[in-house]
Specification:
The structure is a homodimer. By secondary structure, the first copy, chain A, is α+β, with helices and mostly antiparallel strands. Chain A has 16 helices and 23 strands. In chain A, α4 crosses α6 and α13 runs antiparallel to α14. At the A-B interface, β1, α3, α4, β6 and β7 of A face β1, α3, α4, β6 and β7 of B. β23 of chain A pairs antiparallel with β23 of chain B.
Amino acid sequence: MFRSHTCGELRLQNVNSQVTLAGWVQTVRKFGSITFVDLRDRYGITQLLFGEELNAMLDENPLGREFVLQVTGIVSERSNKNKNIPTGDIEINVESFKILNKSAVPPFTIQDDTDGGDDLRMKYRFLDLRRNAVKKNLELRYAVNRATRDYLHQQGFMDIETPFLIKSTPEGARDFVVPSRMNPGQFYALPQSPQTFKQLLMVSGYDRYYQIVKCFRDEDLRADRQPEFTQIDCEMAFVEQEDILNMFEGLIKYIFKAVKNIDYTEAVERMTWEDAMWNYGNDKPDIRFDMKVANLKSAFNKAGSIVATGELINGAGFGVFDNAETVLAIAVPGASEYTRKQIDELTDWVKRPQVGMQGMVNIKCNADGTFKSSVDKFFSEDKLKAIAAFANAKPGDLILILAGPEERTRKAISDLRLELGERLGLRKKNEYRLLWVLDFPLFEYAEEDNRWVARHHPFTSPKPSHIEVMINNDPVIENAAEYLKHPYSNIKANAYDMVLNGNEIGGGSIRIFQRELQEKMFSALGMSKEEALHKFGFLLGAFEYGAPPHGGIAFGFDRLCAILGGSESIRDFIAFPKNNSGRDVMLDAPATIDDKQLQELQIQLDLEKKA
Amino acid sequence: MFRSHTCGELRLQNVNSQVTLAGWVQTVRKFGSITFVDLRDRYGITQLLFGEELNAMLDENPLGREFVLQVTGIVSERSNKNKNIPTGDIEINVESFKILNKSAVPPFTIQDDTDGGDDLRMKYRFLDLRRNAVKKNLELRYAVNRATRDYLHQQGFMDIETPFLIKSTPEGARDFVVPSRMNPGQFYALPQSPQTFKQLLMVSGYDRYYQIVKCFRDEDLRADRQPEFTQIDCEMAFVEQEDILNMFEGLIKYIFKAVKNIDYTEAVERMTWEDAMWNYGNDKPDIRFDMKVANLKSAFNKAGSIVATGELINGAGFGVFDNAETVLAIAVPGASEYTRKQIDELTDWVKRPQVGMQGMVNIKCNADGTFKSSVDKFFSEDKLKAIAAFANAKPGDLILILAGPEERTRKAISDLRLELGERLGLRKKNEYRLLWVLDFPLFEYAEEDNRWVARHHPFTSPKPSHIEVMINNDPVIENAAEYLKHPYSNIKANAYDMVLNGNEIGGGSIRIFQRELQEKMFSALGMSKEEALHKFGFLLGAFEYGAPPHGGIAFGFDRLCAILGGSESIRDFIAFPKNNSGRDVMLDAPATIDDKQLQELQIQLDLEKKA
């Protein structure tokens, strides 16, 4: 061993012992004939004191930042103690030292507030990883990993590894593929998730399966998406939705306790997808604060399960409302005294291209019970009062109203709600609110192909009471514009998402486990019998040999860690992430490969000529 | 929940409770108006009793093997108890039942001794996985996984995930590559191991890293090799070889205790690579039994560290020995009374093409102290006695001698030793003997390229005392035939293998951590400066910024599990293995992909025309 103790370990009780430490030089401070060095390792920082004699040797072998140093010396009590670090009471009176390795001057400082930009830190990721801020993230990630395994083990789950070289079944996202040298002309695919394998394991009788596993999607990368990402992947047999919800809110609560020491004792709230969309404009509402959306005109739910309330605003002569497909309002608590400037700024905010609104109407609900609105001339005080009541606004609140096409307006009011929640400090960093969103639609309509696609995935079971609707109706959509009138629009799935502070952290479903129903699902999605057999014959086959009822869930591990770490960016919680072009800039990968490799794989490049 | 208890849970103390079970129909036995069903799940088997009334319903809905069944009933004491299963004292008096899913007749029986052949079982792997024999293997695998994580966690190791989409650095085995759609013409590679990443993590200060991780090698598959396999991958900083040996024999002992309840308290034996080759003809000797190899002629170690003993046999006029490069003997304990037939059979065994010997000489060391040999006419009783003494043969032993070219003969005697150990019952199933093999050569000579290759990998450090030899000598081999005279032949590495019962279960090394030495290593392997920078520039760069001394090890997880499970085949311990052509016959993967996928990747097939 190069050390007797770590740099985070020594305390007053160690005073007078001889110790050997090894680590990195964080700082060097010379005071006349004495030199102080802060020596850093994974566990902490310890101050070293080089006295007169050794100082001369240091002059010959000067220490630089990030040098790897080994010292032997005596633990001594410090006169000027540093209360900010656990080792701050002591220092090492160095007797001998050895430079184990030198370091060039690092391209950025190894500190919490580094002077390195993103690109530089990614290129020198091995240095970035030395920073305490990044190290804490990876430690948190490991703690979440560990807690997950402990809980699932206690609950009787088995970690079973599923293969990485599988079959390409293009449905949903794009697969990464791997040419097979031994089977020329054929390709493996990397799994987008172990979905079908975990279902097969249920058929095989392993009734509680889990894995913390890498998955791959070759999609155009948006900010904070990675081509390879990690999932906590779970499946259970002989269960109903209720069992899964209980089991996995237990998991997240266990993680809260183990990792954040939070006792999340209350039951996890539940909300249907329709309610989430109606009340928050969003299927992953942040319920740390209220500020619900009021639908002033038409219900988003064209299927009609919620009564439209257009009479509040229609016919007042205000064309913007009259002509809009949707008019949505939120009541911002205590904001009735916002200045013109503040409101203009918010209006500009919703007019930005990312939000895309034409404008914003406001109603100030004054503390004295009166109202002041930008549309005073169209709406009487009584009307304004009625709108305020409908929007749950109290005296002192500011009502903000957006009008426009349904989907865009819904997203805009949701964004605005989150933005104001942020500005008003309602999205508290240290508050965690879990939510189950339930009863998702089974299908979505894909305009470009004029067909149904599975909202979750093709293995998701309809609600039992909706199975008949699926079986008894032809999926064909005669009139694309009226797809909402097709009975498939109303079919709900036995699917659920877990939402934490406005982020979807996991989702799953009860699966189809009968061959006939699965075949019907494939055909509803426009797959021919041959295609279904070619892609999923193994699963259909397995369903013939005694498949049990089953269901499961997968959590986005990277995102879960990021949220628990209080960050928006998953990249900060991945040791070696890729950039937005899918590149590892440290490795400089992907890269060209040798002609010999291409020949062995019996493929060649076929690059598009650039204009 | 579809059940109140599992099929392995109920005991006499549950008698009279109403329970609900769900599982698979293992057997159906009708006795007049009563039917017995064995219901199976992951946890066990419980006997169900269908009385007269329900029997009529069974007639309408007949149960078949592997049907998924849910029953509710009363736990009752059995009159004819089955002592072979933990639930054998009770049965369920069924009150109601529901067939949750039917099953076609499975293509083979779901039993320990199945009637299914390999191919059929692989195609229907989801059924094969139901068999108790396979389930026990996966449970053992999970137990090893769990024990590994527990131990390494206790020792302060952190699980840190490394990327799967990396850069191809063809050196050693062939990479699987993944075309990048976002970076046309460029490819990722799948990792053969996280080697460089774990070293970077050491540079980053994460001084105890581990992962249980999938690795990929596109090699021609021999029996029992998989294109994707799992490693326990570990690395430590600020350590010397001794620290690593202690840490990881601790791991394996911990696994023994946790998984097999074996207290492996004795120190793990250690042996140099030279001694292993000399005494066992093999670098992974099975030390559960002795039967060491005696080198009757030239030492295998041409470098000359062990004295040759040719005087025992040379010049006796027996041309086979005189002309052979190597003559090797083993003394088979208690086999002096083998019949002519038995010896002929052994001679045939060594003459098989897999072993490739021309013949075999024997000396019977009779119990009365006399000798009888197939080469009596060349060797006097005194000579035979001297040979017997040298071969450590006792009265009653049979000495077997093989002669021929060095490498083949060494392998043959090693194979023969293992075969006889097996036949004599010396390789006891339930005995586990660990061994560290140390001081491997740093380089091997690659005849085809007339250059040195790294025996372990190019990141392995030479023994400190051998570094000078490496630095001060030109790697060029003037005379290929005399490569053994090149000083590089004598350089030993700080590398170690862990051997369990004759299987290499893990291997590792202390790494190079200085840029200059790493560059020297790349150049010794015939890599140009440019090539080294292109492939490993990130690592060389990292070594400039304060790399600590470090080393590590990787265990073959599949093999470790197989050995602990008492099997030769790793395939039995992988949930979804591939066959010898790298195919998953259940999925039918790899497979062709859509033209659209090829176009998006900007590659095309370039299939060789078959003659």
